[in-house]
Amino acid sequence: MTKYNLRFRQSLSMLLIAFLAAGNVSGQRLLTLDQAVREALNNSPDIIQARLSLEQSRENLIAQRASLKSNFRLNLQPIQFTRDRRYNEDIGEWIDVQNTVSAGTFSVEQPIIWTDGVISLNNHFGWQDSYSSNSDKTTRGFNNNLSLKLQQPIFTYNRRKLDLKELELAYENSQLNYAVRELAVEKQITQFFYQVYQNQMNLITSREEYANRKQSYEIIKNKVDAGLSPKEELLQAELDMLTSKSTMQNNEVEVENIKDQFKQALGIPLEEEIMVVADISVTPVDVDLNQAINYALQNRMELRQRQIEIEQGQFDIIKTNALNEFRGDIGVEVGLFGMNEKLGNIYEKPTDNQAVNFTLDIPLWDWGEKKAKLKAAEASLKAKEYNLKDEEVNIKLTIRQIYRNLGNLLTQIEIARKNQENAKLTYEINLEKYRNGDLTSMDLNLQQNQLTQAKNNLINAIINYKIELLNMKLQTLYDFETNELITPALEESRIK
């Protein structure tokens, strides 16, 4: 246990005792830093929004994967009746035609992700009753058309495969964004937590100071009553006591205000009464700068997000390059058609159906539209590549600054600790002088202010060090206190 731990190990109990003495703990919920972070990760508005965005990306990817599986469809036409008069060009006469049809089509469509083609199996079955006044004859019977069809684009990019990859990257990016938001919330809550704690400690210090002022006032009052000190000393002591009381009341207001902001960040009702409790003992942590930079470059999720942006930029170039593109389509279909008045004899005399089609789409002139848009997409990709390099430089810069700050803050803690010890010893000596009449109330007031400031400075120095140490952890995704990597809980991006 270090000298910092020995000095501050009892800070939690001191805080509780101080508030219990003031009667402010009853009905309050005590929050540690870990509890506050967990509360925020469940209820923070920022986290909820990121969670909904993640859910949206997940469901989009699930839907896209489902669309690549076989699609079964049944289309039914229970009854269709038509009667109209038509002109028959073969005989040059108007005839009456009447049709009654009942039919259904069952189809299975299977996308082919490897080629971006579609293979489909279709079966159309129906019954038809037809009458024509030309022959004055009614025809009834069943018919069935079974066909297998392949439609395959050529000379172009695989749109299905690219769409799937884009959604996978979007989902991965949403996961990374969610994890980054969690770390940002942890940092925000930690800063808020220690702000609340600092204000609580300031309030405790101001209450101690007010108690000291009251004690000084009673001492000088007794001296004035005994004729040992002038009345002006009593007036000054009373003014100091009232000023200290005002400071204490102001600190009470500040504590409640910062608590409300903290509760908003936590996502809990403003009416709930809370008090934060913290152990501000400090254990100096050894941080290797080169190791910290390497951890950050390997683990920072922002770098992976920049890489995703580059991949998406490459997809944009592929899409832009396909603008006004030369492309073709191949279609092949084979089928078997049969019809008969009797259902069992429907394929007694079947007919083979075949169809092959090959089409080309040949752009002739686009006035430079494709060329200009392609240059714009390439410029955008270069900008994203530059953003990745700039992100790496910013990460290195930030970690180097944090590293320097950590060493400086440890020095500030040592200085603040010695200042507090000196201020406390000086105040006790001068208080005894004041009791003996060897010191004026003005001089004692100055010593009291110095002691109060020294206490606050030490608390602030320790909190600043702990926040900066947390900042190093979040920047590197490595906990140098426990020597453990921080691995955000990312879902499996390859949803089956």
Written overview of the protein:
It is a single chain. The chain has 496 residues and is an alpha+beta fold. The chain has two domains: 3-60 and 164-311 and 378-485, Outer membrane efflux proteins (OEP); 71-112 and 117-155 and 326-362, no CATH class. 58% of the residues lie in helices and 22% in strands. It has helices spanning 3-8, 11-22, 33-43, 45-67, 159-225, 231-266, 289-299, 301-321, 369-435, 441-476, and strands at residues 29-31, 71-88, 93-112, 117-132, 137-154, 274-276, 327-340, 351-361, 478-479, 484-485. The strands form three sheets. Strands 2-3-4-5-7-8 form a six-stranded antiparallel sheet, with no helix packed on it. It has a two-stranded parallel ribbon with strand order 1-6. Strand 2 (71-88) and strand 3 (93-112) form a beta hairpin. The two termini are 51 Å apart. Residues 1-23 have low confidence and may be disordered.
Ordered list of secondary-structure elements with their pairings:
Elements: H1 3-8, H2 11-22, E1 29-31, H3 33-43, H4 45-67, E2 71-88, E3 93-112, E4 117-132, E5 137-154, H5 159-225, H6 231-266, E6 274-276, H7 289-299, H8 301-321, E7 327-340, E8 351-361, H9 369-435, H10 441-476, E9 478-479, E10 484-485
Parallel strand pairs: 1-6
Antiparallel strand pairs: 2-3, 3-4, 4-5, 5-7, 7-8, 9-10
Helix pairs in contact: 3-5, 4-5, 5-6, 5-8, 5-10, 7-9, 8-9, 9-10
